């Protein structure tokens, strides 16, 4: 059960045009927000512990972000792995660039670098 006092700043989005080629679809999703997360589940209901951890970290910094549930679309799920050359999820993008997955995001938070990375204004 989620904490009723926890504020989720993330917004799960869906694609508007699935007729485009896979790389265009992925680029369109990433460009939907300066901070974008491919994850399993949604911000209010993550479907794996790694995705839940990255959501907690992003919410800790009170930043706005958008997400895409890779479990809802197998083409995107497989395509993002090829696009990023990164085999696992979640995958966090900031200003269109891959920052990394759960381990890297956690490490960046612990060493104090993530706050500066997330400053997108």
Would you spell out the secondary-structure blueprint of this structure?
Elements: E1 10-12, H1 22-30, E2 35-39, E3 41-42, E4 45-46, H2 49-60, E5 65-69, H3 74-84, E6 91-94, E7 97-100, H4 102-110, H5 114-117
Parallel strand pairs: 1-5, 2-5
Antiparallel strand pairs: 2-6, 3-4, 6-7
Q: Can you offer a commentary on this structure?
A:
It is a single chain. The chain has 121 residues and is an alpha/beta fold. It has one domain (10-116): Glutaredoxin. The protein is 37% helix and 21% strand. The protein is built from five helices and seven strands; from the N terminus they run E-H-E-E-E-H-E-H-E-E-H-H. It has helices at 22-30, 49-60, 74-84, 102-110, 114-117, and strands spanning 10-12, 35-39, 41-42, 45-46, 65-69, 91-94, 97-100. Strands 1-5-2-6-7 form a five-stranded mixed beta sheet. Helix 1 packs across helix 3 (74-84) and helix 2 (49-60) packs parallel to helix 4. The chain is globular, with a radius of gyration of 14 Å. Residues 1-5 have low confidence and may be disordered.
Structural descriptors:
121 residues; alpha/beta; Glutaredoxin; five-stranded mixed β-sheet; two-stranded antiparallel sheet; 5 helices; 37% helix; 21% strand; globular; disordered N terminus; iron-sulfur; redox-active center; 2 iron, 2 sulfur cluster binding; Thioredoxin-like_sf; iron
Share of residues in helices: 25-40%
The total of helices stands at: 5
Which structural class do you get from the secondary structure elements? alpha/beta
Radius of gyration: 14 Å
- Mean pLDDT equals 92
Q: Low-confidence spans: pLDDT under 50, at least 5 residues?
A: 1-5
Strand content: 15-25%
Number of E-type strands: 7
Report, as a whole number of angstroms, the end-to-end distance.
34 Å
The biggest beta sheet is recorded as: 5 strands, mixed
Oligomer: single chain
Strand order of the largest sheet: 1-5-2-6-7
Order of helices and strands: EHEEEHEHEEHH
Give the tally of structural domains: 1
- Assign the CATH class: Alpha Beta
Per CATH, what is the topology? Glutaredoxin
Write out the CATH superfamily name: Glutaredoxin
- The general outline is globular
Protein name: Glutaredoxin
Pfam family, one: Glutaredoxin
InterPro entries: Glutaredoxin, GRX_PICOT-like, Monothiol_GRX, Monothiol_GRX-rel, Thioredoxin-like_sf
GO molecular function, one term: 2 iron, 2 sulfur cluster binding
